[in-house]
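call fold(seq) -> C-alpha cells
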Amino acid sequence: MAKKNKKGFINFFKFAFAGGAGAFLGGALAIMLVGLFSLFFCGIGYYLVVKNNKKNTKPFEDLQKEQYFGAFLFLIGLLPWVRYFFMGFLFNAGESFFEDNF
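ret:
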C-alpha cells in the first residue's frame, strides 16, 4: 500500500514538473516568435530604405515610394514593442502625479 502512495506522489511531481517546464518553454517560444516577427519586418523595412536611397543624400532626406513602404514595414515590426514605450511614459506620469498630489 505504501508503494502505491509513493508512486502517486512521484507521478504528481513528474506531472507538475512537465507542466511547469512546458509553460516556461511555451512562453519563451512566444517571445521568440514575436522577436522573429519584429526582426523580419524591421529588416525588410531597413533594407528597402537603404537600398532605394538616392546617392549623396541622407536616408530620409528625399524619400522614394519604396522608402515610404520600407518605413511602413519598419513601423509594423515595432508594433509589438510600442506598449513598453508607453509604459515608460505612464510610469513617469504616475510617479509625478503621486508626488504632486500626495
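The radius of gyration is 25 Å.
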